[in-house]
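step=encode ok
step=design start
structure_in=
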């Protein structure tokens, strides 16, 4: 009977969290609509409020069409979502263990460079070279991710500080690598790598459609979906996954229960780095076919918002990443069709995170019942 009541409670809490997420997204869209209206100077000068509202409608419709309105749009959304899913899982698994992984960018860079080296240095058929390069990316990211885990376990250094510093170290180290003879492209003087061999490139998802070179989505998306499944299986079906969740909820209780919290700290950051390394491999082997100094972009920091929006759950992180990927893919169409700057996408993302981080604000605005709503994240203090 107790198990039944516990399951009912968990289900209700899950529904409440989902409701919070949907209301946060809706609130962000409403505020975004208000921003579009007040910035539509031409219509407002003429007193044409309906014209300004029409601009909102056309902007949001262009956003939907640019994300899912055609096979090309869907391909672009998939391509944009792939690294976001992997880095989102990277941040989420650290959240589950009560750690804050801000180092997904550096781990992504490390994984991308190790995958790149296998991609251009190894000769072999694609069915051998591509899996090896993907594994190399995961290993490179995991090793780089383990560093802040070891530092926290051994010295107590907070992972927020160490991961931020390691992001900078990775960026400058890769800048140096891309100027060495081993990585730099022969005919270039700027820091850009050699091309990944044709056998080392990730195959296109829609490669069976001849003459559609505009469909850029690649099998990195399948790798990302597999990573979400592995993340779910690890959390729900393994002893170590249970220990991660217990450690994240209460480190003292986990210690008292006999769990090796130092080992869990290292493992959680190592796994987080591995998933981020897969994102780097997907970008280098699938999207670009080479590496530059900025191939990671802001993906590692966007992943923090994705993990928050997705409540660190596997399915929540997946759908949050697809939402962010759709916003990114559809933003260009929105700017072209309605003259609304693509910068609005950044504003929408920030608003979503703000509303997610303030559940009491959402409950006040929408007058929802004051049921217990958990954001799914637990962070320990600086001295832990």
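sequence_out=
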């Amino acid at each position: 009977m107790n198990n039944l009541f516990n399951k009912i409670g968990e289900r209700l809490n899950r529904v409440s969290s989902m409701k919070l997420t949907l209301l946060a997204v809706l609130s962000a869209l409403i505020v975004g609509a208000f921003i579009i209206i007040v910035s539509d100077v031409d219509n407002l000068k003429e007193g044409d409020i309906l014209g300004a509202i029409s601009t909102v409608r056309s902007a949001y419709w262009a956003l939907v069409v640019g994300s899912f309105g055609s096979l090309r749009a869907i391909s672009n959304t998939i391509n944009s979502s792939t690294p976001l899913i992997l880095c989102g899982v990277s941040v989420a698994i650290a959240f589950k263990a009560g750690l804050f992984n801000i180092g997904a960018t550096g781990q992504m860079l490390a994984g991308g460079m190790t995958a790149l080296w296998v991609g251009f240095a190894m000769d072999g058929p694609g069915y051998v070279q591509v899996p090896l390069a993907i594994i190399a990316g995961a290993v490179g990211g995991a090793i780089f991710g383990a560093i802040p885990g070891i530092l926290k376990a051994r010295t107590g250094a907070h992972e927020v500080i160490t991961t931020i510093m390691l992001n900078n170290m990775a960026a400058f180290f890769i800048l140096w690598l891309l100027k060495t003879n081993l990585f730099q492209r022969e005919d270039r003087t700027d820091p850009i790598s050699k091309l990944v061999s044709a056998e080392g490139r990730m195959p296109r998802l829609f490669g069976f459609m001849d003459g559609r070179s505009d469909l850029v989505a690649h099998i990195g998306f399948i790798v990302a979906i597999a990573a979400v499944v592995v993340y779910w299986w690890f959390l729900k079906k393994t002893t170590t996954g249970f220990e991660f969740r217990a450690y994240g909820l209460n480190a003292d209780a986990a210690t008292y229960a006999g769990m090796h919290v130092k080992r869990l700290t290292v493992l959680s950051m190592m796994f987080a780095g591995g998933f981020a390394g897969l994102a780097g491999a997907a970008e280098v082997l699938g999207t670009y076919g080479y590496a530059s100094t900025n191939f990671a972009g802001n993906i590692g920091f966007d992943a923090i918002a994705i993990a928050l929006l997705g409540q660190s759950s596997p399915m929540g992180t997946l759908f949050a990443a697809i939402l962010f990927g759709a916003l990114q893919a559809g933003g260009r169409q929105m700017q072209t069709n309605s003259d609304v700057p693509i910068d609005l996408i950044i504003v929408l993302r920030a608003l979503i995170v703000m509303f997610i981080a303030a559940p009491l604000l959402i409950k006040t605005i929408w007058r929802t019942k004051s049921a217990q709503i958990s954001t799914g994240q637990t962070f320990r203090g600086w001295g832990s």
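step=design ok
step=annotate ok -> The mean pLDDT is 88.
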